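Researcher: Quick one. two chains, 224 residues in total.
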Amino acid sequence: GQQVMQIPQYQHVQEGEDFTTYCNSSTTLSNIQWYKQRPGGHPVFLIQLVKSGEVKKQKRLTFQFGEAKKNSSLHITATQTTDVGTYFCAGGGISGNTPLVFGKGTRLSVIA
Amino acid sequence: DAGITQSPRYKITETGRQVTLMCHQTWSHSYMFWYRQDLGHGLRLIYYSAAADITDKGEVPDGYVVSRSKTENFPLTLESATRSQTSVYFCASYSSSVDTQYFGPGTRLTVL
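Model:
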C-alpha cells in the first residue's frame, strides 16, 4: 500500500535558524497536506498542495510539492519558539476515495 | 459550536474490559476517522466512515469496533482492551468544501 516517509524524525534548532522537513511517497499523490501538532495538542491543518511543482507560503513557512507529486517539503525561516511542535505531512486524499496516509512526523524543538 | 468533540478526554481501564470512546461533530461532515497516535508510529488509521452506516477498516483495525448510526457520531469500541491499546486516540472529520480534516482534542487511554 501507499507509504509516506518523513525525515528527519527530530530536529533541534537554535531560535532564528531555519528548519526543513521532507516528505516522500512511494506512489504519486493526488495532493499533500501539512499539519502541525503542538505538544499535548491535536493535529491542526496548515495547508494543502495539489498541483505539480506548487509552492505556497504562509509568513515564514514555505511549502513545496514536487514535480512528480511524490515528495514535498516544509521550510521554516528564522524559527521562533512558537514553531515548536510536530509537523506531519499526509498524502492521498478523499478525491481518490482513499483516506489520507500520514507520515510519522518531524518533531521540532527550538532553543531560545 | 464546538466542532468536533471527544469523550472522555482521559480514561484508565483494565485489561479485558470493554471501552467505548465517543466522537461527535456538529458540521454534518460525511467522512469521519479514528486514529491512534503512538511514539515512533505517527498517526495510524484504525477505521473510517464515509457516511452513516458505512464503515471501513484502516491500517490497524484489529481489536476495535466502530458504528455510525448517525452522521454526527462515530464511537470506537475496544471490545476487550489490551495493554498494547494504550495510546492517544484522535477522531477526525473531513470537509469536502475545503478538502481538509479537522481533528478532535484526543482521548488518552491507558490500559493497565
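Chain B is about 0% helix and 55% strand.
Researcher: Thanks, that's what I needed.
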